[in-house]
Design a protein that fits this description.
Layout (H helix, E strand, L loop, with lengths): L1 H9 L8 H10 L121 E3 L17 E3 L2 E2 L1 H9 L3 E2 L4 E2 L1
Parallel strand pairs: 1-2, 2-4, 3-5
Length: about 200
Amino acid sequence: MKTLLLAAILGVTLSAYDTEHLKKALEEKECIGCDLRGANLSKTDFSGADFHGSDLSNADLHESLFEMSDFNDCNLSGANVEGALFWKGTMKRSDLTHIRARGANFKGTHLEQSNLNFADLRETKSWKADFTDALLYKTDFTNAELGDAKFIRDDLHLAKMNNTLLWQTRFRDAVMSKGQCSHAKKEEALFDANVTCR
């Protein structure tokens, strides 16, 4: 009671998930608009699951399978998804700020209009992923595989792309650093119209 009173006085939001929502997610592989803040959903097969509009901020999803799952309009800020598989899933318009996704697989995943600022995407496999209109401020793509991915209308110039595989990666209406542009050309990336190298 004292904790709740103190939280109310200070305006602090307690990040406890809804136990019924967690039970539904685990049993039904579906939880639309659910409160799963800080929940443990690790090392579980959620292939084809629907989490549309749910709050999974700071949740633990590491090494889980989310093949063809729906994370559209979700809050995954600060979540641990290291080693998780999101193959051919959709994460459009989602908050992925500060997500810890090292070694995760986003092959064919739709990430359009999502906020990936400060995301740790080191060593991820994101072949054919779509980053159109995504926010990528200080996103870390070090040692990531981004072959045949799309970066359309993105500002990448402060993203880290050290030793990143960019074969056939498509850039259009994008802003990149000179170093990124040079690396991308060596990797045989595809530059469409209006790519700014600065």
